[in-house]
Fold:
Amino acid sequence: MITLLRVHPLLIVAGIAAVPCAAAAQDAGREIQLSCIVAEKDAEGEWVGTRSLTQRDGEVRAGRDSYEWRPRQSTEIAPGISLKWDIGYDWPADEKTQRSAPEDRIAVTLNFRFDAAKIGEPLKNPQRTWLHLYRSGNADEKFSFTATSMMSVMLWHQFNNGNLSTKALVPLDHLLAFGTGFDTLAWNIRGAPDAYGSTYVLAKGTIPVAVMRGKAGEIPRLRRLLDRKQANHRTECLPPVMSPP
Structure:
């Protein structure tokens, strides 16, 4: 015997309505990560500012901002030796009353790469060297170990193909103060001193200090642009790119 069950139409409607409610309940409390980006190019280089956002239950909370300025092109110092440098600053999320980016917390990063194939010989990893900056615009000037310089330690990495990379970090305010009156500063990468204090030069060149002046003053303007994007985050900011499973 077959028993027919009669289901009231109101129960069907209630069941259908419960599906989106259940989905909404699952979404409640779920955090959504967003990223706001501002990019500006000019004749000298490019600014990129980013802000991370966390959206939960209709409320948006901002994380820290990151700002980076890069020159348009890397510098080839010699065949197989290149330098890429940038100016970077992270604006903390809890600095609500801060109006400017302090130059003593802005870093100038100098990234060096050595290509063994282009140099034409195997490269030995020096492990640790020092970047010396000199108050001179002449990269070919021979500096003695007694010459006044501003120094930064450099740690090296060697890749499987034999190439080398290293970098130096210099606070922007130190660099600008040391370079007062100069448009460029000469630099040497020097090894550890011997028993007499002499050091050997691995590479040399110049960096354009004049280009770095005034860059800190651009950061508050970029921050205001990120504020506008945050205010319109539904259309102006995107979730992070997810890699396929």
About this structure: Residues 9-27 form the longest helix (19 residues). The radius of gyration is 27 Å. Helices lie at 9-27, 116-119, 172-178, 209-212, 219-231, 233-236.
